[in-house]
């Protein structure tokens, strides 16, 4: 009995440590918090009806939590967190590849969930779930490695060390860079959300496809500067901290734009 349990534990550990799929807890909350500060009055009212009194940050990580659901009810949603695209250097080629992707993915599902929310026939429960997923997935969209290559599963198979600990490139971008700054999510949101109205408008311009391409280009840059076997520490933080913070801010502002357009 004991050995079965230890095997199960080991398997669970391997599964959770080999592949990770999202900004860590703080990253998603920072993005949700920034977005909440940029909602229109109408969007705020509609969302309160759907989500209740909790802030967006409260729900932001739920789509990752349900990956631990053992009933299988959410199995199909695990592919909604990313869209793997091989390196494309111009937007036209990228968009073509993006639209040719088979199956549900981050891109196709953001569109599906948005139309579910708009559809008056969608039940109250399903609308709430769709909204929570959108809050989360627009955060994933801003994590560059969620638009990375398929061959290495968005950097999951690129082994690196971070301050001596064995990890992978995807995981560094999910949580380690953000967590290294040691801010709470409210502190970080406040520190980053300082752009002028014009700058915010500029960041929120473009289409969903443009935003994905933006992340994809950053992913290509990260790949080029982080080969397999890299030993990462302070110099990597120094090199990429601005990029990570830009992505948290842009993720939040673009999530707000998507929701404002939706309601
Ligand atoms: Zn995710």
From TrEMBL:
It comes from Chryseobacterium turcicum. One of its GO terms (biological process) is DNA catabolic process. The keyword Glycoprotein applies. CDD domains: S1-P1_nuclease. One of its GO terms (molecular function) is endonuclease activity. SUPFAM superfamilies: Phospholipase C/P1 nuclease. InterPro entries: PLipase_C/P1_nuclease_dom_sf (IPR008947), S1/P1nuclease (IPR003154). It comes from the Bacteria. It holds the Pfam family S1-P1_nuclease. Keywords: Disulfide bond, Endonuclease, Glycoprotein, Hydrolase, Metal-binding, Nuclease. This is S1/P1 nuclease. The lineage of its organism: Bacteria, Pseudomonadati, Bacteroidota, Flavobacteriia, Flavobacteriales.
